[in-house]
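User: structure tokens for this one?
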Amino acid sequence: MLRIPFRVIPPDVDEHVIAGEAPDAYVTRLSRAKALAVAPQAPGEVILAADTTVVLDGKIFEKPTSPAHAVQMLGRLQGRTHAVLTAVAVAQDGRLEQALDVSRVTFRPFERAILEEYVATGEPLDKAGAYAIQGLGAPLIERVEGDFFGVMGLPLRLALDLLAKFGRPYRFTR
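Assistant:
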């Protein structure tokens, strides 16, 4: 969207929550781990990594483990407001900077059949909280307080601020 050249290097990082880990510590740890896992594969390059989680009543909603689990998650979110935490990490040559975005998302109430139809599309099965605000999950949303892009998984303002700290300020023209 911003026409910033990039390449994708998938990190090999265990994304499970450590027992007793707070949601902000969880996403911060994972974004850092992802950046540090990729850095040795691209020496000298600026590495940007992020991780997102959904939190309701203090409970972290990871990616669903099955379609039934996705329906269960969505059922708990409907008609309620939850937090979406996205941590961004930028690394280069042993230096690492991080930032955390927190947004609040309110779901509309739905009948279970609608949630099952959404899950049947397959979209929610690899998403934290079992929904994609930027995709077919958009009709589930009543309101967003905070950064829409953070809810999508990459808060642009934080990512651009961090990249600027590494000598990569955003320019509309190249």
